[in-house]
Design goal:
Layout (H helix, E strand, L loop, with lengths): L1 H16 L7 H16 L3 H7 L6 H23 L2 H6 L1 H17 L2 H14 L3 H18 L4 H16 L6 H4 L3 H4 L6 H31 L10 H11 L20 H17 L8 H7 L27 H12 L14 H16 L4 H18 L12 H16 L3 H16 L3 H14 L3 H21 L10 H12 L14 H17 L7 H36 L3 H13 L16 H44 L1
Length: about 650
C-alpha cells in the first residue's frame, strides 16, 4: 500500500514539475497517465480527488480541454459496459463521473459525435443513462447557438428508443383485461425505463430553453429551426409509437401507471414550448390538403420549408395526433387552450389526425382515433355541421375509415365504439348533410351489416320528421331524395333472384323492417313512398320471393344429402358446391391428418340449419311487409271511393 502511495506522489510531483502552465500539453499527458494508474490500482476515490481538491481541480479540469478525448476512449468507453456495471460497479461509476466531467469541460463538438454513436450502438440501458447525462451537459454548454446539435442528439435518442423490441400483441391489439397487465411485460418495462431516463435528460434543457424564450418576449410564434421548436417537435414525436401503443388512459379510478406519467410529462412539456397548443392544430390540414410539390432535380425539398412543424421527419402526423388525443381526451394541459376557438373548427381540423391514426393497422391507435373523434363530437353539442362541409375530402375519408373499423376490426369493443360514433357523427349534420352522408355511404360501403344499419338510421330520421313536421317534410326525407335513396341503395338486390341471401341477410332484414314501417305510418304518402311502390315490388319484393324459394329448396336438398352421408367423390363435389355458396365450414383433422368425416358432417348440418332459419325469418318479414302494403292499398281505395 505504501508503494502505491509513493507512486501516486511521484505522478503528482511529475505532473507539477512538467507543467509550465495549467493547460500545458505535458501536464495534460501526465494527467491521463495518472488517471489510468489510479484506475489500474482501483483507487477510484483518488481519481475523484484529482478533480475536486482545491489544489489540483482547477488545473486538471482545464487539462480536460486537451486530453478529454483521450480519457474518453482510453478510460470511459472500455469501462462503461453492462458486464463492468454488474461485476465492478465502483469502476463503472468512476468512469461515468469522468465522462460527465469531460462533457462539462472537454471539447464539445468532438465529444458530441462520440456520445451520439454510443447512444445508438450500445444496447445497455446503463450506458444509455450515463450517455444522456453527459450529452445533457454538452448541449447545455452549446446553448442557443447550435440548434442543429440538439436536433442530431434528439434524432439519435429517438432512433435508439424506436429500435427497442416490443411484444407483438401491441401491434395486433389487446382487450381491456390484457391492458391492465401491459406494464408487467419485461420489454415494455424496459421501454418505460428509457422514457423515464429521457425525462431526466430533457427537463434541464427545457428549463433553459423556456428561460430564453421568456426573455425574448416574442409577439409572433417563430416556426424556424431553433432550440425551442426542435425540442418541442421531439417531445411530441416521442408521444407516437412505441409509447402510443400502450394504455394512455388517465382514469382517476386506475393506478397512475408509468405509461401515463411519461405521456403526461411529454404533453405538458410540449405545451410549455407552444404556450397555445392549438398553434399547431392546422398542421394536419396543411400537410394533407396542401401537399408541397417535391422535385429533387430543381432543388425543391421537404427540408426547404421555413416551418419546422410542416416537416414530416421532424413532426410525424401520427405523433401529433396522439398529442391532441392527450390534450382533448385525457385533458392534459387543456387549460392552456384559449377559449376563442370554435368547436367546429377544432373538430374538422382534428379529423385529419383521426384519419391519420385510423390509417394505421394497430388497434390501439384506432382506439385513440375513435375516442378523439367522439370527444370532439360531444364538444359540438347543439352546433350543426353544414352540408357544405362535405366538400372537404377529410369527411369522406373519415366516413370510409370509420366504416372499415365498424365492419372489420378484430377488436369487438372498437366496433361498438365505432357504431355509436358513426351515428353521432351523422346526426351532427343538418338535414341535407345527413342525407348526403347516408346516400354516399350506402353507395360505397360493401359491408352488408353496415348497409343495413345505415338503412335503419335513415328510416329513423324520416320517422322523426314525420312526427315533428306539421306540414311538408324536408326535401332530404321526401320526394326525389327519398326515391333515390330507397330505390337505388336500400330496396335493391344486386343480382336479382340470384343474390346470395345469406350474405345480404342483415341488409334485407333492415330493408323489410323499413318498408313495413312506412307502409303503416305513411298512409298519406308524405314521403312519396307509394309513388315508387310498383318499382319496389318489381325490383325488390318479387325477386326476393323467388330467391327465397330457390335458396330454401337448394339448402334443403344439401341438408338431406349431408344427413344421408356421402362417398368420397360426392363429398368433394359437395365441398365445391358449398364453397360456391360461400359457406365457411370448419373441418376437424386428427393428429394423423385424416379427416373426421362424422364431425364435418355434423358441422355442415348445423350451418345449413342456421341458414334455413335465416330464410324463415326473411320470409316471415317479407310476408308481413307485403300484407301491410296490401292493407294500405286497400285502405287508400276505400278512402278514394
Amino acid at each position: 500500500m505504501a508503494a502505491k502511495e509513493n507512486d501516486m506522489d511521484y505522478l503528482l510531483e511529475r505532473q507539477q514539475l512538467t507543467s509550465d502552465k495549467p493547460a500545458s500539453r505535458m501536464g495534460a499527458t501526465n494527467l491521463v497517465k495518472l488517471v489510468k494508474q489510479l484506475i489500474k490500482e482501483k483507487q477510484y476515490e483518488g481519481v475523484a480527488l484529482l478533480f475536486t481538491s482545491e489544489t489540483e481541480s482547477e488545473r486538471n479540469l482545464e487539462c480536460l480541454k486537451t486530453v478529454g478525448s483521450d480519457l474518453y476512449h482510453d478510460v470511459c468507453v472500455p469501462n462503461m459496459t453492462t458486464e463492468i456495471h454488474d461485476k465492478q460497479l465502483p469502476l463503472y461509476n468512476c468512469s461515468e463521473e469522468l465522462l460527465y466531467l469531460i462533457a462539462k469541460y472537454g471539447p464539445m463538438e468532438e465529444l458530441l459525435l462520440e456520445l451520439l454513436e454510443l447512444i445508438e450502438e450500445q444496447k445497455s440501458e446503463y450506458v444509455f443513462s450515463s450517455s444522456l447525462r453527459a450529452l445533457q451537459a454538452v448541449l447545455l454548454r452549446m446553448g442557443e447557438k447550435k440548434p442543429r446539435a440538439l436536433e442530431w442528439s434528439l434524432n439519435s435518442i429517438h432512433t435508439r428508443i424506436e429500435g427497442l423490441p416490443l411484444p407483438k400483441y401491441l401491434q395486433e391489439g389487446y382487450d381491456k383485461k390484457q391492458e391492465r397487465l401491459l406494464e408487467q411485460n419485461a420489454e415494455i418495462e424496459k421501454l418505460l425505463m428509457h422514457y423515464i431516463t429521457l425525462n431526466l435528460f430533457y427537463e434541464p434543457l427545457l428549463n433553459d430553453v423556456l428561460s430564453q424564450q421568456r426573455s425574448c418576449d416574442q409577439q409572433f410564434f417563430d416556426t424556424s429551426i431553433n432550440r425551442r421548436n426542435v425540442l418541442c417537435c421531439f417531445l411530441i414525436q416521442m408521444l407516437g409509437k412505441p409509447l402510443a401503443l400502450l394504455d394512455l388512459t388517465a382514469d382517476d379510478r386506475k393506478t397512475n401507471t408509468y405509461t401515463i406519467q411519461c405521456a403526461r410529462k411529454l404533453t405538458e412539456s410540449a405545451t410549455g414550448c407552444l404556450v397555445d397548443p392549438l398553434r399547431v392544430l392546422s398542421v394536419g390540414e396543411q400537410r394533407v390538403r396542401y401537399k408541397r410539390r417535391l422535385d429533387s432535380e430543381k432543388g425543391v425539398q421537404e427540408m426547404s420549408s421555413n416551418n419546422i412543424f410542416l416537416i414530416e421527419e421532424k413532426l410525424p402526423l401520427d405523433a401529433l395526433s396522439i398529442y391532441f388525443y392527450m390534450l382533448f381526451v385525457e385533458e392534459i394541459s387543456l387549460d392552456s387552450v384559449p377559449k376563442i376557438y370554435s368547436p367546429l373548427y377544432i373538430f374538422e381540423s382534428c379529423l385529419y389526425y383521426v384519419n391519420e391514426l385510423l390509417a394505421h393497422e394497430a388497434p390501439p391507435l384506432h382506439e385513440r382515433a375513435l375516442l378523439l373523434a367522439k370527444r370532439l363530437c360531444d364538444k359540438l353539442s347543439s352546433t350543426q355541421i353544414s352540408a357544405n362541409s362535405l366538400q372537404l375530402e377529410v369527411h369522406k375519408n373519415f366516413c370510409n375509415s370509420l366504416c372499415n373499423i365498424v365492419g372489420y376490426s378484430t377488436q369487438n369493443f372498437l366496433r361498438q365504439i365505432g357504431v355509436k360514433l358513426l351515428r353521432q357523427y351523422i346526426l351532427q349534420f343538418d338535414d341535407e348533410g345527413k342525407y348526403l352522408v347516408l346516400k354516399n355511404l350506402l353507395r360505397t360501403v360493401t359491408h352488408h351489416g353496415i348497409s343495413g344499419y345505415l338503412a335503419i338510421l335513415y328510416k329513423d330520421l324520416v320517422a322523426n320528421a314525420l312526427v315533428s313536421a306539421t306540414t311538408d317534410l324536408p326535401s332530404s326525407f321526401s320526394g326525389k331524395d327519398f326515391h333515390t335513396i330507397f330505390l337505388q341503395y336500400i330496396c335493391r338486390l344486386p343480382h336479382g333472384a340470384k343474390t346470395d341471401l345469406i350474405e345480404h341477410a342483415d341488409k334485407l332484414i333492415s330493408t323489410l323492417n323499413a318498408l313495413r314501417f312506412f307502409a303503416i305510418k305513411d298512409l298519406h304518402n308524405r314521403t312519396g313512398l307509394w309513388d315508387i311502390m310498383p318499382e319496389i315490388e318489381k325490383q325488390f319484393l318479387e325477386p326476393l320471393r323467388k330467391g327465397l324459394d330457390i335458396s330454401v329448396a337448394h339448402y334443403k336438398a344439401e341438408l338431406k344429402r349431408v344427413e344421408c352421408g356421402l362417398d368420397a367423390e360426392a363429398e368433394a363435389e359437395e365441398r365445391k358446391n358449398l364453397e360456391i355458396l360461400d359457406i365457411n365450414i370448419a373441418n376437424a383433422t386428427s393428429e394423423s391428418g385424416k379427416l373426421d368425416a362424422q364431425l364435418t358432417r355434423q358441422r355442415k348440418t348445423e350451418i345449413l340449419n342456421q341458414n334455413l332459419c335465416t330464410f324463415d325469418l326473411i320470409r316471415s318479414l317479407l310476408g308481413r311487409t307485403v300484407e301491410c302494403v296490401e292493407n294500405a292499398n286497400r285502405m287508400s281505395k276505400i278512402t278514394a271511393i
